[in-house]
Batch of 2 targets.
Target 1
Amino acid sequence: MTTVAERDESGPPGAAGRPLLSLRGITKSFGAVEALRGVDLDIMPGKITALVGDNGAGKSTMIKTISGIWGPTSGEMYWDGEPVTARTPRDADALGIATVYQDLALCDNLDIVQNMFLGHELLTHRLLDETEMEKAARQTLADLSVTSVSSVRQLVGSLSGGQRQSVAVARAVMRDAKLVIMDEPTAALGVSQTAQVLDLIRRLGDRGIAVLVISHNLSDVFSVADRLAVLYLGTLVSSGAATEYDAQSAVELITTGDRSQHADAASPALSTDIDPEG
């Protein structure tokens, strides 16, 4: 397998309509614990894929493996048809993979512009180009139809949960991300803020950006996802178009790994609070 800097031109056949990201036989072990077991998954450009699973199913392990935090124990990762290895988050960023974790990694004591350019500041004659950074931040938010922010010079600490999500996503888009991974983007948000974030996710898809959403809220999943992928005890037990599933079949897969089982889809513990951590 090649590194990010040493890609070759080989890869899965079929350039037309091929996945942006393909995982093939991905495993991840921590000692005797096998967190991922031969996962095969395709993420298509411009499509919103929801990754769901119960506590300990392996969702966090998968996104950290894709994001370069942990290397897989075995298996192959293809990016736009080319085999790659994201050994670090910087490698993943260079490919065009941006991850928005649940804590958002924002600095409350900095304003929106400073957060969006943190570590990527624009310089003119070795001085910060505040004018260009402010202009770029304002334009990126406008392109994403983020209208709830009154000023890009607001401190991030003063923003609502939905606004903070918007800033974190805008930061990823501004860095030319082709795949945005969002970890529990609507957790702890109110109804209006949740709607704002879901609209933002749809706009990413409309812009041709692939989105991988990890969520425990099936209502949010079915309102926004084009595709669904279900993990059960480290194994990808099902994936396909979201229209092929309903809440009951999804819950059955999440809790048993078997669609033939009959779970109570009306249970609040299953339908709205599947897994905040796994």
Target 2
Amino acid sequence: MNILIAPILSALCAVSGDTGSLVLQAEVVHGPDGPIEDGRILIRDGKIEAIGAGLELPGDGHLIELEGHLSAGLVAMGDQTGLKGEALDSTRQIMDGADLAFGYDKTDDGWGAFLEAGVTAVLLTPKPGALVGGRTAVVKPAGAMVQRRAHLHVCFSNAAFKSGVAPTSYPGAISMLEQRMETPTGGFALLGKGLGVLLAAKTRAEGLRAVAFAKRHGLTGALTGVSRAGDLVDELHDAGLGVILPPIGAAADPRVAASAAILGKKDIPLAFSLGATNRSPHALRISALRCMKAGLARDAAWKALTSGAGEIANAPVGSLAVGRAADLVLWSGDPLDLTSQVERVWIEGKQVHGDDDQ
């Protein structure tokens, strides 16, 4: 028996008949240590209890045999679907006390598109328009709030500048941020206490300012919005920051995908962003495939779509691992093949998309 986790078989079988368990078997299971042919996943109380090939069915288990590839759900970064209320406030430049979690609407019709694309977690971020746009949140499409406060969103691009309202320049913006760091309140007081920083920028120069600010204050988090972040690979590595890559479509500059390969070779944590509410979540896999063609390793691309994104989001999502929520996707084939379609989606062990609902 090839079991990838520690629990012994007797523990698997010694279960209560009141709770029951679900075992999913697929042609290929994309486990934490690589693909498993004819793999099985044992799910109990919405969480993964075991993963392996030849995993025996517990006495209270219900086995579902599936055709296709079973993987962790994808994680989408940088989206505003369902956001309402203070998340859309454009009158204040510093909103470090604003929580996007309060603007999350799980009834929004847009969440269905995420499930259709195999996305089981989303990092909600404000649109660049304020120097400090509030605290990001991680949610499950049309479901639970996973992480209410993932980052403090700080914008280093000129999108934060408004005529007649401070700051109106880069030096002014840095000065305002430094003042907040000297006497931290609200979100600034939480930096370094579990709250990361999400640094939004566009150009290389803006990215350098953002990374320098984070390094100066020992902040953790990620840079987002810089299409050729690979140009900052050394600075990012020294600061210990991750990168959220922008959408990479057919018309994108080839150097954007090549930049991702540079970051991957330096082991910079990566994730993929949608960048716009009306962009299809299928853009995540398209971006990953373009980066792979430019030299990003397959494992790095897959991690950026799943567990790596979860790590940047500071949330337990995107991982097919024991103890994690059973957020799973069944694909018709290899999930990194664009011809593969999403067949079913489970969130916390409950099927939420696809035929033959359980």
